[in-house]
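Known limitations

Structure tokens in this collection are predictions and should be treated as such. Users comparing against experimental data should check residue numbering before alignment. To illustrate the layout, the record for YopX protein domain-containing protein is reproduced below. The input appears on top and the generated tokens appear beneath it.
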Amino acid sequence: NRYVLMQYTGLKDCKGKEIYEGDIVEYYFYKETAIVKWSDHFSRLHLHFIGEYREHLKNKHGIYIFDWTYPKMELKIIGNIYENPELLKNINI
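Generated tokens:
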């Protein structure tokens, strides 16, 4: 068995599940999918949108997960990049 350690963000999704770096989440407000990723450029975790919403972001680096103020941000974990790579098929991240 191969184990991958994932960094806990300190946040939980809409179902109370802990959100970790590498998780793939659905963001209900925009009906978009994103990956929780570390940004070396900004030295923090952020959401890296992989759908159409990403095109509307000015900095193209994602929305910073710790800057959000909405309760639980309507995020739902749908998998992670290690156990569910099929969720990222045909996507350039």
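For this record: DSSP finds no helices and seven strands in the chain. The domain at 8-81 is CATH 2.30.30.290 (SH3 type barrels.). Please report discrepancies through the issue tracker.
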